[in-house]
Design a protein that fits this description.
346 residues; 12 helices; Dihydrodipicolinate Reductase, domain 2
């Protein structure tokens, strides 16, 4: 059994990690870490865990945890993991970081977009970007994984085949994305109160959202050059879900069959990426509670553009599910283990 510890187990992504790992036949949770609920029963915080989890929350003691756990998940705000990681810990255990601390390879870019100093830049180059469908072979057996963000996972997987194959002009990419409120975390914030969110939709982080450089960097690796794109997120009044609609100018005239064959070549054998049938558009309700990503595209012959769409559950494939998928790869398990839940509906 893989002994797993979770730092930040009482956040939304942390609780989703608990839910998924409890159903994983090769993993056992040995540490429910929390800064806000030390010594409080986990099931008192999350009633869905009543008579399922009897453990109490423990402090965020990385040194003690590294002695007990084969893998540590850090579902924490930016900066915390970077402040805690060191060689002694990494020599004892594996780490899968759900924050952005090790996703961006350029320290100056990270510090500019996140507004904090990176406290362990010496580990940035070692960390593997944990987008499993693209970096599968690099992830296997590694000790430090940077789990991608929710917007980035959906955006990159939707666009990657077309960027990699030169189908779209990368200077023309515009990404319009929408997220449920759980993407903002569990912390109390005025902008996330019911009366602020209900019956409302709004853009936020316009031109400044922190996932922008992550998307640009990873898509840049796909085409071998620097990419600058427009990314605008929106907050919608639902609990879960990411919907991405991206636009790009075609580099030549393409038929539906040509582009479809590209998607099939990249994702035809992928378990968690579902390329939908022609004219069937992704919807968040059809992936809720699952590790699936639904993608599709439409050609706009009038404007010579392609419109690419993707949908995922931000707490599963956008966070905890992808982290478990990474754990499976790191430890040589079947990649789908513990993640084969059918999407929930309604």
């Amino acid at each position: 059994m893989i002994k797993a510890g979770i730092i930040g187990s009482t956040g939304y992504a942390g609780q989703e990690l608990v839910r998924l790992l409890l159903g994983h036949k090769e993993a056992e949770i040995v540490w429910y870490g929390s800064r806000s609920y030390i010594d409080k029963r986990y099931s008192d915080i999350f009633g869905n865990m009543f008579e399922i989890v009897d453990a109490k929350c423990l402090e965020e003691n990385m040194e003690r945890l590294a002695e007990q756990a084969d893998v540590i998940f850090t579902a924490t705000p930016q900066g915390l993991c970077a402040s805690l990681v060191n060689e002694e810990i990494l020599s004892r255990t594996r780490m899968i970081d759900l924050s952005a601390d090790f996703r961006i390879k350029d320290v100056a870019t990270y510090e500019k977009w996140y507004g904090i100093e990176h406290e362990s830049p010496e580990y940035i180059q070692e960390a593997v970007y944990g987008l499993c469908e693209i970096n599968r072979e690099q992830i296997r057996g590694k000790r430090l994984i940077a789990n991608p963000g929710c917007y980035t996972t959906c955006s990159i997987l939707s666009l990657y085949p077309l960027v990699k194959e030169g189908v779209i002009d990368t200077d023309s990419i515009i990404i319009d994305a929408k997220s449920g409120t759980s993407g903002a975390g569990r912390g109390a914030k005025i902008n996330n109160l019911y009366c602020e969110i209900n019956e409302n939709i709004k853009a936020y982080g316009v031109t400044t959202h922190r996932h922008t450089p992550e998307i640009e960097e990873q898509l840049g690796y796909a085409c071998g050059k620097q990419i600058v794109l427009s990314f605008t997120p929106h907050l919608v009044p639902m609990n879960r879900g990411i919907l991405v609609t991206a636009y790009g100018n075609l580099t030549r005239d393409y038929s539906y069959e040509e582009i479809r064959s590209i998607y099939d070549r990249y994702y035809g054998k992928e378990y968690f990426v579902r390329v939908l049938d022609r004219d069937v558009l992704p919807e968040t309700r059809w992936v809720e509670g699952s590790n699936y990503v639904d993608v599709n595209f439409k050609l706009d012959e009038r404007t010579k553009r392609v419109v690419v769409m993707g949908a995922l559950d931000n707490l599963v494939k956008g966070a905890a599910g992808q982290a478990v998928q990474n754990m499976n790869l790191v430890f040589g398990l079947a990649e789908t283990m513990g993640l084969e839940q059918v999407p929930m509906f309604p």
